[in-house]
Amino acid sequence: MAPTKKVTKKFMVTPVAGAASPKPPLGPMLGQNGVNISAFVQDFNGKTSEMAQKYGPVKVPTMIYIFIDKSFEIEVFPPVTSSLINWKAKNAKGSGTPNTDKKGSITMADVKEIAAIKAPVMNTEDMDAICKSIIGTAKNM
To answer: Among 41, 68, 86, 119, which one is most buried in terms of CB atoms within 10 A?
Structure first.
């Protein structure tokens, strides 16, 4: 998505899908950049509610474009890889001591499913390379 008006500022936030709220840290960050907080929360939660139902509480990278007239557009990307790994492993979070304390496991089919979700935003079209990247992330969790 390319903004059609003159962009004065753009920045990235990573709220939880379908659960954005005006509480810190999101609210103050949006407010100091001149974004209508309630409009953002409503727009973001509307665009990510289906994602939240499908994947659970996953973090979603979102680019916010702010225009001269203080209006904004948001561009929602696929969920963060570590959130998708936790979704597949049925964990709330990764291990505090990776390679020592194992918190769960995922199958190669799970890795391929995550790779298909992440493929549009990866810098390669090689699914094997994307899978290796996801496996590396999983090992570090």
So the answer is: 86
105-124 per-position pLDDT tens digit = 899 999 999 999 999 999 99
125-130, Cβ contacts within 8 angstroms, sequence gap of 24 or more: none
Instruction: Give the span between the Cα atoms of 86 and 137, in whole angstroms.
Output: 11
Query: How much is the pTM?
Result: 0.85
What's the topology of domain 81-139? Arc Repressor Mutant, subunit A (1.10.10)
CA dihedral 96, 98, 100, 101 (to 10 degrees): 50
- Kindly report, as residue ranges, where domains of CATH 3.30.1550.10 are found in the chain: 7-76
CATH class of 7-76: alpha beta
Q: What tokens does 41 get?
A: 């929360």
Ordered strands of the 62-67 beta sheet: 7-13, 62-67, 72-76
**Residue 138 three-state SS:** helix
CA-closest candidate to residue 14, choices 85, 83, 92:
83
